[in-house]
User: Which sequence fits this backbone?
């Protein structure tokens, strides 16, 4: 019978050296003209000098130089905001911020209307059924309009030339 022996090789990593190298490389990439996007773990995204951190499933906080810039309802719009801010297109960043804020508030209002409509439907309250049904329809139209505006802003961000 042959016995196999595997030698255990010990490898000592200098974690501090690796950490310094990583920080130096990120700082070097941050100073570049072209925006880069790097994901750290599952909850943090770095885009040049901006960092996006997941607060909860509906909130993404943007930091610039460790100072809070804004809370977004959508991860996607937070990323495009950071790209536009890196390219110094401040009118586009303002549109993204405002549209994301309005969209988040409208979606919350739509949830409330759906809940109130369901309550009215359960109690057979015709007045509130019609009221919340109409409000919900109006909110859906406004949500679609805001989503179209956000899509235009995202498309503009994709084609920013450095």
Assistant:
């Amino acid at each position: 019978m042959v016995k196999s022996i595997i030698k255990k090789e010990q490898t000592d990593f200098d974690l501090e050296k690796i950490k310094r190298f990583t920080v130096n490389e990120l700082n070097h990439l941050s100073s570049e003209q072209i925006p880069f996007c790097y994901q750290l773990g599952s909850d943090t995204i770095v885009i040049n000098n901006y960092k996006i951190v997941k607060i909860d499933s509906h909130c993404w906080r943007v930091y610039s130089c460790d100072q809070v810039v804004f809370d977004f309802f959508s991860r996607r719009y937070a990323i495009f905001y950071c790209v536009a801010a890196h390219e110094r297109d401040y009118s586009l960043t303002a549109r993204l911020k405002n549209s994301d804020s309005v969209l988040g508030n409208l979606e919350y209002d739509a949830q409330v209307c759906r809940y109130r409509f369901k309550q009215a439907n359960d109690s057979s309250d015709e007045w509130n059924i019609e009221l919340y049904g109409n409000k919900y329809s109006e909110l859906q139209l406004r949500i679609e309009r805001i989503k179209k505006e956000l899509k235009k802003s995202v498309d503009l961000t994709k084609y920013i030339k450095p």
Notes: Helices lie at 15-30, 75-86, 90-122, 126-158.
